[in-house]
Every structure is written in structure tokens, then in C-alpha cells.
Amino acid sequence: MKKETMNIDPVQIEAAITEKTKVIAVVHYAGVACDMDAIMALAEKYQLWVVEDAAQALMSAYHQKPLGTIGHFGTISFHDTKNLQCGEGGALLINHKKSCRTCRNHPRKRYKSLAV
Ligand SMILES: Cc1ncc(COP(=O)(O)O)c(C=O)c1O
């Protein structure tokens, strides 16, 4: 953990990567951004997916980019303890074209998608 942000430390992420690692999942705790430049560089270096837990980070940004839109996937919570609420809801942000098509064409068509 980085003392300044209380968020995950990219140096510790890299030390924990093994041949079995597939995903780097980061939490932007209390709306404070993780070090996304370093994290995305690690993802590129080791060919890993990045999932941002932006449940607490709606309206927060990193270099003018909304949190949850920098990694391949971002998650947002609309739980009633969050800034924007709908009881028990959430959103999955997809920042990867092929995965976006896969979700949109899912046969169950259970989820509403809003392509931007
Ligand atoms: C950082 C973080 N991730 C995930 C969750 C879970 O969100 P939800 O209750 O919408 O599944 C929360 C909710 O408290 C949270 O704060």
C-alpha cells in the first residue's frame, strides 16, 4: 500500500505477479486515484487485464480521465452508501472493444448496455 494514497502500490503489484496472474484489480479507495500510469505500464509489460473498482470513485479523475475508464474494465456501485444511489445497482464500464461486443451480443440480453 502507498502511504500517501492508502491505495495499492505498483511496486508491490509487480513483486506479486507470477505466471498465473491474469488480472490486476485496483480499488480507488475513497475516490483517491491509484497510480494508473504505473499500473497500466505493468499491464502492458506482463499482458494483464486491469479492472478498476471505482465503486467509491464516481466523479473522481486521474489526469482528467474519470476513474473506472482507464483500465480494461471499471466497476461502479450505486449502493445506498454511495454518491449516486439506486438501492442495489451498479455499472460495468468496458474499455476494450472485443469485450464490449461480447457483452452486447450475450444471448441472455439481460443487461442494459449504453454504448458511448
Ligand atoms: C470499494 C468498493 N468496492 C465494491 C463495493 C461493492 O459495491 P456493491 O455493494 O454495489 O456491490 C463497495 C461497496 O461498499 C465498495 O466500497
From TrEMBL:
GO molecular function: transaminase activity
Coiled coil: none
InterPro entries with a match to the protein in the record: DegT/StrS_aminotransferase, PyrdxlP-dep_Trfase, PyrdxlP-dep_Trfase_major
A Pfam match: DegT_DnrJ_EryC1
The UniProt record lists the keyword Transferase: yes
PROSITE patterns found in the cross-reference section: PROKAR_LIPOPROTEIN
Transmembrane segments: none
Keyword line: Aminotransferase, Transferase
Family matches, as SUPFAM superfamilies: PLP-dependent transferases
PANTHER family per UniProt: DTDP-4-AMINO-4,6-DIDEOXYGALACTOSE TRANSAMINASE, TRANSAMINASE
Protein's name in the database: Aminotransferase class V-fold PLP-dependent enzyme
Originating organism: Tigheibacillus halophilus
